Structure formats: structure tokens, C-alpha cells
Amino acid sequence: MNKSEWADKDYYADLGVSKSASHDDIKRAYRKLARDNHPDKNPGDKKAEDRFKRAAEAYDVIGDEAKRKEYDQLKAMLASGRMGGFGQAGGAGFPGGFRTSTQDFDISDIFGQSGGFSADGSLGDIFGGLFNRGGTTGRQAQPSRGADVEADITLDFREATKGTTIPIQLTGDAPCATCHGSGSASGQPTRCDKCNGSGFTSENKGAFGFSAPCDKCHGSGSIITDPCGDCAGRGTIHKTRSIRVKIPAGVIDGQKVRLAGQGEAGPNGKPSGDLFVTVHVTPDKIFTRDGNDLAVTVPVSFGELSLGGTITVPTLGTPVRVKVPAGTPNGRTLRVRGRGVEKRDGSKGDLLVTVEVKVPTNLDAAATSALRTYAQAEKDSGFDPRADWAGND
């Protein structure tokens, strides 16, 4: 989302964490909200869908250390009043203005009615460094890095829990192979003589000094005097490329995986942006997840629960044999340690095995006779399955 919209958001509240929360706390909060409010789990629930979207948006910002730092800086400036009416300003003037130790003044007195503001109402020359962009038209700095790229992939349940590596194709700016991304045919851009290679020029306006992107080199600090014939001096070309994306074990539906430097190439040798891959996970016919625990419901017979025994249960790997104690009630969940989803530290969650009686529908004569004999013996023993049910004594 546009960073100028951050002013109206409280991402910590959206995730239900404090501003001092650790990265792991933020991740846990996001995963819980994403799991509880996922549209597949709450079909038709618009409120849950809205909570899911707000959690994803919040995690995209404060779940990224660099973005979180910028977001915290912006909110701190807003709280201190140093940005006045930022987020509400139009093209003319600035509600609230700035306050110095001696007097109040309107920021339009410095810049005029529109100077210093970009078209979306955000502060330009003053706070351009905070948002990686310049101010007025014609003085914008050249991007300091390539654009971030977003992609979506779909994994089946077991791929997501075990982790996998898959190839994806991306179309966008990539470094020019001819000039190696420099934009110069000789590979040696010329240093800008106006800003002396700094990319910025300084000017004084009254009692204030301001830096702005150099309008000759557009903030790059260098000028291409011999542009590459293949990329026309940009240093990038538009192409389709294939990369392999490693998805860590235990990824959940809706989670984003960040691949640093795998986005679009930056102009004239600048660093590449990042690639954000949103993972969609299809449900499994057998397993579900509860955090890092793997859950499975296993059909059993009445005799297996009454008399006890050992049953074979599937896992993500080799099946495991689980002992069922005699007299186990229907619906009981048995825990098998260490056979769940792998965690980041290499350990695993547990396997939760819920036993559910499967009632036979077609019994032969011998089985029917034996069952009637048992039912009578059960009754004669004084067993009443409804003795403690619905207030019966």
C-alpha cells in the first residue's frame, strides 16, 4: 500500500500486539488471526474477512523490519505534532502548520500554495528521505532500488507442512547483460558536476536549509554520457526470468515469503527490490493443522475402543502405530509426540489422533446373532449408557 496511507492505520492494534512486541510475537499474532479468520474457515463472514485482510496488511508492514522502522518513525512524528495535518493536507496549504520555539507559521509561507507537496498530499522535499521519494515534479530522486514484486503460488497441504522448492516465472525489469546494469556502454557513468556525485543539492529558504534531489542527475549522482544501445541507458531490460523459490516447512495459508533482492532490478546498477510470494494452501483430505500440531480423525470399531488394541495411523512420513487403551471413549484424542509439523528450530509438533467409532451397516447372520447376545449380556450386567445423561439417576 502507499506509505502515505500509514498515518491512518494502527497496525499494532490490528494484530493485537504492543508497540514493543518482538518480531516473533508479531508473527505468532498474525498466524493466529490468519488461521481464525481465513475466508475458507468462515465462508460468507464479511467481518472475519475484513479482520483477515487487515491482519495481512498489518503484517506486511510491521512484520518487515525495514518497513516497521519507517512506520514507527512516521507515527512518532505524527504523535509529536511535528507533521501537523499530514494525511489530511490537500494541494494548497497545510492544516496546523509547524511550530517552532518562538512562533507558529504556515508551511505554505515557505513553499507557496503548492510547493513541497506531491500529488497525493504527502510531504515531498521535507520528508522525501523517509519515504524514499522526492517532492515536486522534475526534482524527484531516481529510485534507490528496484520495485518490489508480488507473486502467488498454491501448494497442497503436505507440501506446505514439509516445505518445498518450486520454480516460478517473473516478468519485469532485469539487469541489462550488455552493460551489466550500469546503463553505460563503457560501464563507467560520469559523476554529476552539479551535485558533485552526492545526488542532492542544498538551498536555503529563510532560516531553514533544505536538501532536494539534484535535477540534473535526478538524484543518482551520475550521468550516462554513452548510453548502452540495448537498454538506452536505463541499465535494465524487460524480460521474463525463472527463479526457484524455497518455501520453508510449516508455512500457513495466506502467509507471505520474502526473497530479498529477487524483485525487479534497480536502474543503473541500483539494488534489486524484493519478491513477496503469497502462499495459498489447499486443504488435505485427512489432516488438519492446529499450529504446529497435526490432527487426524481415525475410524475405529466399538470393539477396539472397548477391548483396547493398536491401530496404524498415517503421518506426513512413515505411518505410526498407536496404542488405544481399553475403555477409550468415542471422540477421545490421543497425542503422539514429535510427529507433527516441523518448526523453524527443527523440532516438530505433535500428532493428535481422534478416534471415532464407525458403525457397521451390513452385518451377516452370525455377526447379528453375536451382537444380540452381547447386547443382552451388557444389559444383564447393569450397564446403562444413559445413566448419567440428561439428569437420569
UniProtKB/TrEMBL annotation:
Cofactor remark from the record: Binds 2 Zn(2+) ions per monomer.
UniProt entry keywords in alphabetical sequence: Chaperone, Cytoplasm, DNA replication, Metal-binding, Repeat, Stress response, Zinc, Zinc-finger
Compartments where located: Cytoplasm
Cofactor(s) needed by this chain: Zn(2+)
Keyword Zinc: yes
PROSITE patterns: DNAJ_2, ZF_CR
Residue numbers spanned by region Disordered: 28-51
Binding site for Zn(2+) 1: 176, 179, 228, 231
GO MF entry, a single one: zinc ion binding
J domain segment(s): 10-75
Coiled coil regions, renumbered to chain: none
Domain description: The J domain is necessary and sufficient to stimulate DnaK ATPase activity. Zinc center 1 plays an important role in the autonomous, DnaK-independent chaperone activity of DnaJ. Zinc center 2 is essential for interaction with DnaK and for DnaJ activity.
Primary role: Participates actively in the response to hyperosmotic and heat shock by preventing the aggregation of stress-denatured proteins and by disaggregating proteins, also in an autonomous, DnaK-independent fashion. Unfolded proteins bind initially to DnaJ; upon interaction with the DnaJ-bound protein, DnaK hydrolyzes its bound ATP, resulting in the formation of a stable complex. GrpE releases ADP from DnaK; ATP binding to DnaK triggers the release of the substrate protein, thus completing the reaction cycle.
Homology family: Belongs to the DnaJ family.
Protein name: Chaperone protein DnaJ
